[in-house]
Inverse folding.
């Protein structure tokens, strides 16, 4: 048991362009699945807080939406949320896909990072598939642009280098009492985590066909006498044509999504799950302030 006088605790914001591995790294640092991972960019919408313990330190990991040039109201909400978390964090980790050159989204992030006051670390991810001679060049180029306290080369997927990053973060969060119980791995309600898992399966199954105008809400969460949990979720889309895509021929697509989601939710909550999915059309949900509040996003006025 760690004495309160020895404890450290702080918020670590993971910042970067879309699809650089922030969610994968969050899960790797926590040691459990708390954030959805898909090949589709910009799938993290709200701030997901994963919680990791390292010795006497508690790290509250903020998996932010990918930063990119916003085009729609939802885009602006996501990017604004990401930068808000960076300015309020104790440490900021800037993730860069090590096997890609600097793109427009990276340039925008680097420019704005200069105005972020908390200490910043550079994390070059996916080094297992990167061109090794170019890694040092990339690290030097990025360190010339922004004053980073340290540079780490990792593979969030395989775990290589993650322990060293975790130890560094643990040593650099402020001294202070832990904010969460030792066995808690996320501050997201189970209803929200279950909805995120279903949204992940939805995107994995339909990432080529389904646009971003879709969301999942957990409507019913009922613990039954036999220890199992009945969960009813609604997948909201904006058009009837999207509803048909999610359902699939004879309902086969929605059945596959439900089976995959049920398995992961049951593993996370450690109870048998009875999952019932419904698909409804909700036109213009992307302009509904209530939907943004449910996702933990601030509704942009314009």
């Amino acid at each position: 048991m760690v004495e309160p006088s020895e404890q450290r605790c702080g918020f670590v914001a993971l910042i970067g362009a879309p699809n650089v591995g922030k969610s994968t790294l969050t899960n790797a640092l926590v040691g459990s699945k708390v954030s959805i991972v898909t090949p589709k960019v910009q799938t993290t919408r709200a701030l997901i807080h994963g919680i990791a313990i390292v010795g006497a330190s508690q790290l509250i990991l903020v998996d932010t939406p990918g930063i990119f040039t916003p085009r729609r109201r939802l885009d602006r909400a996501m990017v604004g949320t990401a930068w808000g978390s960076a300015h309020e964090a104790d440490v900021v980790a800037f993730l860069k896909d090590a096997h890609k050159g600097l793109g427009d989204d990276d340039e925008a992030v680097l420019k704005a990072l200069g105005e972020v006051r908390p200490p910043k670390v550079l994390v070059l991810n996916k080094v297992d598939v990167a061109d090794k001679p170019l890694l040092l060049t990339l690290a030097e180029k990025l360190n010339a642009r922004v004053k980073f306290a340290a540079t780490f080369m990792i593979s969030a997927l395989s775990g290589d280098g993650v322990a060293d990053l975790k130890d560094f973060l643990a040593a650099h969060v402020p001294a202070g009492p832990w904010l969460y119980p030792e066995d808690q791995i996320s501050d997201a309600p189970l209803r929200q985590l279950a909805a995120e898992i279903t949204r992940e399966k939805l995107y994995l199954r339909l990432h080529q066909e389904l646009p971003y105008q879709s969301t999942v809400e957990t409507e019913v969460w009922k613990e039954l006498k036999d220890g199992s949990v009945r969960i009813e979720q609604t997948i909201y889309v904006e058009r009837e044509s999207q509803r048909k895509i999610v359902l699939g021929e004879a309902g086969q697509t929605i059945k596959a999504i439900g089976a995959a989601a049920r398995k992961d939710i049951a593993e996370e909550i450690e109870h048998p799950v009875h999952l019932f999915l419904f698909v409804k059309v909700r036109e213009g949900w992307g302009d509904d302030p209530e939907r943004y509040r449910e996702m933990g996003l601030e509704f942009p006025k314009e």
